[in-house]
Amino acid sequence: MPAAEQIHPIEEPILAQEPKEPKKGYTLGMLIRSCAQTVFITAALFFLITHFTVQGFAISGTCMEPNLKTGERVLGNKLAYVASGPVRGDVIVFRYPVDPSRTYIKRVIGLPGETIEVREGRVLINGHRIFEPYLLKTAHGDYGPEKIKDGRLFVMGDYRDQSNDSRIWGELPVENIKAKAWVRYWPPVRAQLMK
After folding, report:
1. Is residue 51 over pLDDT 70?
2. Whole-prediction pTM
């Protein structure tokens, strides 16, 4: 009797087919939604940064020459005085006390409680002349002596003979400060941190 043939089934590998995902493509609606989200997030960040952190200011006038000239632009740090107050020599941007709709830029010269006096263009604080390396033009005139009130500053421009400052309109209330001038960014050839 012939030998029975044994049949061994050959197992063919069964390939598992993964379910096909629908092709992903951007529809016009998805593209518009994505662009709108990007614009919204960018606008929100811009608003938060300019409202709470930094702001750009354009210089107009000669009062801070030659350190700042008409047409130059500076960034102001709005958070500079959150932890501590201004110090002598800081360049600040503030609301003009006589007309708060106008913005001025000057240098802090006198601090609350100090006595300020100007003699022949030289500034004396509590009877001692202060060092002012930022002055490049000789100043003239006299002022004081006057004790600066609490919560107030005495500010002056760097070009003293051309500056409408505390010698004319009085002390600056600290709450009028908008920002500390941080960096001059325009024109690029004069870009630098403010001193």
Report:
1. no
2. 0.73
